[in-house]
Amino acid sequence: MKFIPLDSFSALNSLLQGVEAQGCCITMRLEAYTCRHTKEERQIANNIASYQNNVQLTPPISPSPAIGAYADFPPQEALPPLVLGGSADLAANYSLVNPDEIDDRLVYFVAALNTVYESDGYDFSVLRENDFVRYTEPQFRTEVSNTLQSLPEQCHPAVQRFWPTMEEVVENAEGGCEYYEFCCPSCDPLADTAVYARHYFVYNRRKKVLVLLVEYGESNPYRGDDGLPHAGGPTSAWDGESSTYASTPEAGEEGEVYGGGKNRQFYGYY
């Protein structure tokens, strides 16, 4: 998967960044990617399968037989050695996932999210198909149009160009488009920093192209609930020219340490 630099998307992104509306600062950003099987995608499929297999083969640990004695329950018979959960045939109850069986769409969605957020330490190989919800084209357009129509008048040129610009790249449902939203609040890397966040995927299998639309709202940095201006100006994780959302800090540059998000221990945040 490769990022596709598009002047039309860059123009829209610049007009729809940090727009004050609905009581917050809204950003809508479009990115386009090619969808082809490369070494990177094969590795992602392997990672997804490996994680799913590890989860399936890790049973719950049964309590120690001595625990029941403290609660006036009769002592339990000790479990066989080296058998977690008391079942030596646990692996037989699961069908191991083969990387070749992983849906291409899941691989591409994970690859796009990894490209966007990898500098923050995220690896979305933990995601599964049920972390994405499929929309019809009318449902998708309604969801996005609700936000576009709430933007102030100065954004009207960008709003008018939004759908034609997207369809130039990925077409529409008649041209083979499928519409999805990333719906896993515990996995959302913007959950701790944004008022709300939405990640949409527009996938065209025929054209082998994927468009990622990220929409999020941030609290207004100039005014708090007390009505007083706050120190500092607006900042964004997507500031700066980059083929991905977050730019890599320069050597010696200090930045705020990320302290939240999905699976703190899994990603090394303690």
What labels would you give this structure?
7-stranded antiparallel β-sheet, alpha+beta, disordered C terminus, 17% strand, 6 helices, 7 strands, Protein Transport Mog1p, Chain A
Description:
The protein has 270 residues and is of the alpha+beta class. Among the domains are: 3-38 and 103-218, 3-Layer(aba) Sandwich (Protein Transport Mog1p, Chain A), CATH 3.40.1000; 58-93, no CATH class. It has helices at 7-15, 39-56, 67-70, 104-117, 137-149, 156-170, and strands spanning 3-4, 19-21, 24-34, 132-135, 177-182, 196-204, 209-218. Strands 1, 2, 3, 4, 5, 6 and 7 form a seven-stranded antiparallel β-sheet that branches. The longest helix has 18 residues, at 39-56. The protein starts with a strand and ends in a 52-residue tail after the last strand. Residues 61-71, 78-88, 224-237 and 239-270 have low confidence and may be disordered.
Q: What is the topology?
A:
Layout: E1 3-4, H1 7-15, E2 19-21, E3 24-34, H2 39-56, H3 67-70, H4 104-117, E4 132-135, H5 137-149, H6 156-170, E5 177-182, E6 196-204, E7 209-218
Antiparallel strand pairs: 1-3, 2-3, 3-7, 4-5, 5-6, 6-7
Organism: Leishmania braziliensis
Region (Disordered): 223-259
GO molecular function, one term: RNA polymerase III core binding
